[in-house]
Design goal:
The protein is of the alpha+beta class. Helices cover about 35% and strands about 25% of the residues. The chain has helices at about 15-20, 25-50, 55-75, 120-125, 145-150; strands spanning about 80, 85-90, 95-100, 160-170, 175-185, 190-200. A hairpin with a 3-residue loop joins β4 (about 160-170) and β5 (about 175-185).
């Protein structure tokens, strides 16, 4: 495995309930794989030689998905293709990584970009946690076809598969600042409500 078994951490009850026997190994692997992703994205950023941050951000997003998929395979779990993107699925829980800021920022300030793809919105709506108690959804008579479509599960992911969000902040110069994982409900204003969340440690960047 990318993360030796002796590096597995003691998982929380929440993580054990969702990932079963892989909970400890996965909790240890996620920070390591984000650090690996940063190292490669930073190298790509330097190779391009542009001052803009976009090469780093684009590379990082793809590498994080790739490394998490690699971890799922090493654990003997599934990798599912959704619209050309691979997602790690462990114990019927899909990992959705999202860099919500390029500077240290509290998790409660995370917001989905206004130009986020319909696929990403639908992943949150259809596979995320149910609407928090006390909030209400649109009346059936007001719901548009497009709105209802956001709540249709992806069969390729598995209709019963639940989303586990891996939210983090990072930049090319300083690497990963903070990592959080848990269950996030996407609100109409593109902010998030977290029925449950945990902070994971940041792993050191591997030497090149």
């Amino acid at each position: 495995m990318s993360v030796p078994s002796d590096e597995a951490v003691a998982p929380s009850a929440w993580a054990t309930e969702r990932f079963g026997r892989h909970a400890g190994a996965l909790a240890a692997a996620v920070p390591v794989q984000l650090a690996n992703s940063h190292a490669k994205a930073h190298a790509a950023h330097l190779a391009v030689g542009l001052k803009k941050r976009s090469p780093y951000g684009v590379a990082l997003a793809g590498l994080v998905r790739e490394y998490l998929a690699q971890t799922a395979r090493e654990l003997g779990e599934s990798v599912r293709d959704v619209r050309g993107y691979e997602y790690a699925v462990i114990h019927d829980h899909a990992l959705l990584p999202f860099r919500y800021a390029d500077k240290p920022r509290p998790l409660d300030r995370a917001r989905l970009p206004s130009n986020a793809s319909p696929t990403r919105r639908r992943l949150f709506r259809a596979h995320g946690p149910q609407q928090p108690e006390g909030l209400f959804d649109l009346d059936d008579g007001l719901a548009t076809e497009e709105y209802l479509g956001l709540h249709e599960a992806f069969e390729e992911l598995g209709a019963s598969t639940k989303l586990i969000c891996v939210f983090f902040t990072a930049d090319a110069e300083n690497g990963i600042h903070a990592i959080h994982w848990g269950e996030a409900h996407l609100e109409p204003d593109r902010t998030f409500t977290w029925p449950y969340k945990e902070q994971l440690p940041v792993a050191p960047v591997p030497l090149e």
